[in-house]
């Protein structure tokens, strides 16, 4: 659950031990699967809505429009998952995880919140683990200050455990919790940015040109960010 060799305080070590005990308990996985089964029943009822949104996503003329429909699909996903998830207003554990966004999504968020982008020092299509355990710059008083405009990945992460124990982050740690499977939506998110790729080779070539970074790179100071250094 945590990177080997990390130095932990006694409190962090105790937390890590409790998390390991919870994760390794077979009942944790069994209970999560039971909750997912209930989610699947609700998701089945939402299929017509999701199908309609998928058609709109496919027809969307520009990436900003695609991001709108991706968000609508995320709401449909959340409608099925949230009632069975451990997530609540009192939990901000996921706000200490890496948050990967594309340049295009960051530009949409920038326009919505009126904060200019900074140029990332590191581009990566993978989660940047050095940010694990670091608070999101938009986290204020244990709440998201841009909740309505939050990134797509934040809209899709749901812990299917009984409570938030496994969401609590220790700096340098890798989160390990029975998260709801949102891989289909992640793929749709990536494909929406790649255009009409027809082969695996075209996809790999397009991925090399995909500019992604952690949200903290684009908005290091959250809503208090000053102008300058805007990405193009």
Largest sheet: 2 strands, antiparallel
Poorly predicted residue ranges: 1-5, 227-232
Put simply, the count of helices is: 9
| Estimated radius of gyration | 18 Å
Question: Tell me, what's the shape?
Answer: globular
What is the subunit arrangement here?
A: single chain
Q: Note the run of SSEs as H and E.
A: HHHHEHEEHHHEH
Structural class: mainly alpha
Mean pLDDT: 90
Question: Would you give an account of this structure?
Answer:
The protein has 232 residues and is mainly alpha-helical. It has one domain (10-224). Helices cover 47% and strands 4% of the residues. It contains 9 helices and 4 strands; from the N terminus they run ααααβαββαααβα. The strands form 2 sheets. A two-stranded antiparallel sheet has the order 1-4. It has a two-stranded antiparallel ribbon with strand order 2-3. A hairpin with a 2-residue loop joins strand 2 (139-140) and strand 3 (143-144). The longest helix is centred in the first third of the chain and has 20 residues, at 26-45. It is globular.
């Amino acid at each position: 659950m945590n990177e080997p060799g990390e130095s932990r305080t006694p409190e962090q070590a105790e937390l890590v031990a409790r998390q390991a005990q919870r994760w390794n308990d077979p009942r944790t996985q069994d209970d999560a699967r039971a909750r997912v089964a209930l989610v699947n029943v609700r998701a089945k009822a939402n299929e017509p809505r999701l199908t309609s949104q998928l058609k709109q996503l496919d027809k969307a003329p520009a990436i900003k429009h695609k991001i709108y429909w991706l968000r609508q699909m995320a709401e449909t996903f959340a409608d099925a998952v949230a009632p069975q998830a451990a997530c609540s207003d009192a939990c901000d554990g996921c706000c200490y995880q890496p948050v990967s966004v594309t340049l295009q999504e960051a530009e949409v968020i920038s326009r919505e919140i009126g904060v200019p982008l900074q140029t990332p020092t590191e581009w990566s299509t993978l989660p940047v683990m050095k940010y694990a355990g670091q608070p999101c710059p938009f986290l204020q008083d244990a709440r998201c200050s841009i909740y309505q405009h939050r990134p797509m990945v934040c809209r899709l992460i749901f812990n299917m455990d009984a409570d938030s124990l496994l969401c609590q982050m220790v700096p340098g740690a890798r989160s390990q919790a029975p998260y709801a499977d949102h891989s289909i939506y992640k793929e749709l998110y990536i494909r929406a940015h790649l255009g009409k790729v027809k082969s695996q080779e075209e996809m790999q070539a397009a991925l090399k040109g995909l500019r992604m970074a952690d949200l903290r790179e684009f908005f290091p100071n959250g809503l208090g960010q000053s102008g300058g250094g805007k990405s193009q």
